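User: Can you predict the 3D structure of Tr-type G domain-containing protein? Sequence below.
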Amino acid sequence: MVKFTAEELRRIMDYKHNIRNMSVIAHVDHGKSTLTDSLVAAAGIIAQEVAGGVQMTDTRADGAERGITIKSTGISLHYKMTDEALKSYKGERNGNEYLINLIGSPGHVDFSSEVTAALRITDGALGLVDCIEGVCVQTETLLRQALGERIRPVLTVNKMDRCFLELQVYPEKGTVAFSAGLHGWAFTLTNFAKMYASKFGVDESKMMERLRGENYFDPATKKWTSKNTGSATSKRGFVQFCYEPIKQIINTCMNDQKDKLWPMLTKLGVTMKSDEKELMGKALKKRVMQTWLPASSALLEMMNFHLPSTSTGQRYRVENLYEGPLDDQYANATRNCDPEGPLITPPSDKGRFFAFGRVFAGKVHTCLQVRIMGPNYVPGEKKDLYFKNV
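Assistant: Sure. Here are the predicted structure tokens for Tr-type G domain-containing protein:
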């Protein structure tokens, strides 16, 4: 992740296939703002050391005092994917640079209207679930709301640093991540599948299947089974190849066993800077995990691979976004994400409402006269229709 210049931003804006508009949704206190901080830190906007404490998407003082997010807040991130990561990406794209417009929204039920506004202008959502508390009431409510807007979701099981127990989860094709937002690390099964695929002589997709569900490996016999054989050395693939390596690294850091740690990191291809090698305990653990399994790489690659681009999302969401005839020039411009078409933006609520905006088609500039269609507007009529200048 890197900062982008104005020139780079203008260039990427022309690449419709490389833009992701997505919301972060979760039950209150499941870690949305903290995890978002880790992504913002990876872009160089804030220091990695303070990620989680800044709460970049909590813009109101009263919300900070209450420890909750009150207003939805947007931030744009410029992400350059590695050539290695792009090998497994089959979608349309222009180069390796991506613009990720991310909206952090409230999790408290009292501010659900903020989530509604955020979901209307996004195509994908990153859902968070606290690994201790699990799926809560607002988790289900927000997910239903997102699906109603035809938003495509991906998931991260967050706060992994709170609980290191055996987790029986069933992530599908890399759309589930496991994260520790406060400490800035995360992984998908893709990360570990790449490590072990060559060792077992199978492709990554096959290895991913072995790292989830009822798949057990016994190092004594070097065999995989679909049932636990009862052997003391037979363990679930996820536990043996994901959970235990992480636990071993964390314990080694916390016990300051650097004579064991450095060889382990060398095998993993992790290089620490000279000043970082002087860290101890929690500080060492945090830096090692951020270097080995950076949250930005795991989460943003998952979003880029599995959430729709602006051009893809608008093709099937046009019926949710436009209330007029679905075969007129406005619907077609929205469906095609056409920059040369008429200006199309989302509808607004009654009254004077400052909200997130998104251009679905056309181009917007100052002094441009636009038609504002209120909530009671009927296509073809003049009631609740206004003309204003940008």
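The radius of gyration is 23 Å. Residues 193 and 325 are 47 Å apart (CA to CA).
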